[in-house]
């Protein structure tokens, strides 16, 4: 039995020796890694110093990005306020144009007729020039064999200040219908 005990002790001793050698080998690798971290690969700069420098550069980039974001937000606010002012100016301009368009003489109608039975070719005419409110004028030309006469009558709300002829009324109705 003592032989068995001696054999087991020898086996444990060898196993312990192998474990010790492996532990020393691992410790040697760890010491090399710590040496690299503490003095760097070139012996000048450690990995920790490189990491610190990289972190400082990253922080500077982060600050630059924050400043750019703030500048961009300020520019966006400025652009939005300028755009709102431009939009209001355009709205005022459109409103002014819309109010002035109503006063433009843009409703026009022409009625041609024969003022005299002995003269053909419908050389006489009544021309109505009105705005959207029916304000404007009628021009009537009466052509005869010897001369031509031109009459102008003012209109307010589609009604003449002087009595209108049937042809003038026809021209005013046609102009208002457009």
Question: Keywords, please?
Answer:
178 residues; alpha+beta; 2 domains; five-stranded antiparallel sheet; 5 strands; 59% helix
Task: Give the CA-based shape.
Answer: rod-shaped
Overall tally of domains? 2
Whole-Å distance between the termini?
130 Å
Q: Total number of helical segments?
A: 3
Q: What structural category do the secondary elements indicate?
A: alpha+beta
Which H/E pattern describes the elements? HHEEEEEH
How do the strands line up in the largest sheet?
1-2-3-4-5
Fraction of helical residues: 55-70%
The parts where pLDDT drops under 50 for at least 5 residues are none
Rg result: 52 Å
Number of strands: 5
Strand fraction band?
15-25%
Tell me about the largest β-sheet.
5 strands, antiparallel
Average pLDDT reading: 87
The quaternary organization reads as single chain
């Amino acid at each position: 039995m003592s032989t068995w005990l001696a054999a087991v002790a020898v086996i444990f001793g060898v196993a312990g020796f192998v474990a010790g050698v492996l532990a020393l080998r691992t410790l040697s690798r760890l010491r090399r890694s710590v040496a690299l971290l503490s003095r760097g690969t070139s012996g000048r700069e450690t990995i920790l110093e490189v990491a610190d420098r990289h972190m400082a550069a990253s922080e500077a980039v982060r600050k630059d990005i924050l400043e750019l974001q703030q500048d961009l937000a300020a520019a966006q606010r400025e652009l939005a306020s300028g755009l709102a002012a431009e939009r209001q100016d355009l709205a005022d301009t459109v409103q002014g144009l819309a109010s002035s368009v109503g006063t433009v003489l843009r409703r026009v109608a022409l009625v041609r007729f024969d003022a005299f039975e002995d003269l053909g070719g419908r050389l006489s005419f009544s021309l109505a020039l009105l705005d959207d409110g029916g304000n404007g004028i009628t021009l009537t030309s009466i052509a005869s064999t010897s001369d031509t006469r031109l009459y102008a009558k003012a209109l307010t709300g589609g009604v003449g200040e002087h009595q209108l002829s049937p042809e003038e009324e026809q021209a005013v109705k046609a102009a208002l219908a457009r």
